[in-house]
Design brief:
Blueprint: E1 2-6, H1 12-23, H2 29-39, E2 43-49, E3 52-66, E4 69-81, H3 90-104, E5 109-112, H4 117-121, E6 126-137, E7 150-153, H5 159-171, H6 182-189, E8 195-200, E9 206-215, E10 218-226, H7 229-240, E11 248-253, H8 259-262, E12 269-280, H9 283-289, E13 299-304, E14 313-318, E15 321-325, E16 340-343, H10 344-352, H11 357-362, H12 370-379
GO molecular function, one term: aminoglycoside N-acetyltransferase activity
Keywords: Transferase
Pfam family, one: Acetyltransf_17
Amino acid sequence: MSDIRLLAEEDYEEVFRLSEYAFQYQLTEQQKEIRKQWMNKQDILGDVEDGRLTAKAHLLPFTVFIYGKEFHMSGVAGVATWPEYRRKGKVAKLLKVALERMREKGECLSFLHPFQVNFYRKFGWELFASYKKLTIENKHLILLAPTKGRVERISREDVPQVLNPIYEAYMLQYNGGLKRTPFWWKHYVLTKEMHAVVYVDEQNEKTGYMLYEMKNRHMNVKEMIALTEEAKRGLWNFICQHDSMADKVTIITSVDDLLPYLLHEPRITQEIYPYIMARIVDLEKFLKAYPFVKTEGTLLLHVHDEFAPWNSAIYQISESGVNVFRKENVSCMHPPKRGLQLDVNTATALLLGYERPFAFYRMGKLKGNEKEVEHLEKMLPQRTTFFIDFF
């Protein structure tokens, strides 16, 4: 008989052994000590059978920006099962307990990096953010108009203090960005090979930065964050100064970044990568904090959530607020006469801004009549999603 419980510090060595086996890496003692600092802040759920850890999942405490507001988010990571215990529903049980615990702690959202998207869709997580990868050949490293500012190199010790204000100002323009702590910057953003530079304008304001690695004649730009077009040009011109060192440059950026349009030759390789999944843990709490655009009239959302049944309800949204109507069985034999029907996956992607209502309506993920879809279009603010961290 197995039992799911919170793991403690005395279980960490077992946790490390399972992680090393499942994800095929080896941790040094120094790396373990750093991880222990972070694990002490996590909820680590373990499936224990006959005294042995058979499966686990880590719940990481984060804060994210959604429409300029801060929301508590639980990141699901390190999900692993020993092979001899796989395909016995252990991960499903862990995720069920995880969602219940998140709800008890008042967390509205959960994010995860999927090994397989469809696996986590079964449990209510859905894609919510993609990134764009630009690949630029050396021959296209052509300077743009010069700027009046300058690029300065930043020491690793100064990165959190100097770069975080720029990062946060940029991420507040998007939905989903992580609120970074100094610990996160030091141990999970910066790598040993990473260089950091900041763009300083004519007024001595820091308005952009770049994190990048140089290896084997490849300039790999992990983050290129610019608050102004001038900063974007200044950082691009800095990249071009590496034309004698780099055969190619890759840049990870947001899907709406228009940098390619500014280049002398915009026909570079641009690839869109669906990157991370999200799930609304407590839909009532999230909707009551959501910044709906004020519109006349009332809209009903019939939401179905098989894995977290407390979310299955009818949500009445109007200028006066959100009312919730629950019944024992919200899955009707016949479609409701009023309102829109959707599952929690679609609700998550929709409310976070990954796609607009009419897109989901055309895909058959949002059901109802077009007038009500149009009403929902007017009620939802617009903001692109973007997430660049990994956990």
